[in-house]
């Protein structure tokens, strides 16, 4: 599907959504996360916001056991909260 700005959006995407106390949290759970995983998650978040809830504020959360350094930097720069077990 192409939007009014000429951006192409897949009609199918997958996100885990948690709604609690009026907060919308978009969650990605991975054993290991690399840059491709972060980019894919951000793409899905963008599609969700554009197609489903364009005016809603959402929290982006990554639950993982391990994340590569560059991927962690990118995630943090994009406002993704990273939840990892204590070492």
Explain this structure.
The chain is an alpha/beta fold and 87 residues long. The chain has a single domain, classed as Trna Endonuclease, Chain: A, domain 1. The protein is 30% helix and 34% strand. The chain has 2 helices and 4 strands, in the order ββαβαβ. The chain has helices spanning 35-51, 69-77; strands at residues 16-20, 23-33, 58-67, 80-83. Strands 1-2-3-4 form a 4-stranded mixed beta sheet. The longest helix is centred in the middle third of the chain and has 17 residues, at 35-51. The termini are far apart. The mean pLDDT is 86.
Q: Strand fraction band?
A: 25-35%
The biggest beta sheet reads: 4 strands, mixed
Given helix and strand content, the structural type is alpha/beta
Total helix count? 2
Query: What are the secondary-structure elements, in order, as H or E?
Result: EEHEHE
**What sort of overall outline do the alpha carbons produce when their principal axes are compared?**
globular
Backbone CA Rg: 14 Å
CATH topology: Trna Endonuclease, Chain: A, domain 1
Give the end-to-end Cα distance, rounded to a whole number of Å. 43 Å
Label the CATH architecture: 3-Layer(aba) Sandwich
Number of domains: 1
> What would the average pLDDT be, to the nearest integer?
86
- Low-confidence sequence ranges: none
Please provide the count of β strands: 4
In the CATH scheme, the class would be: Alpha Beta
Strand order across the biggest sheet? 1-2-3-4
User: Fraction of residues in helices?
Assistant: 25-40%
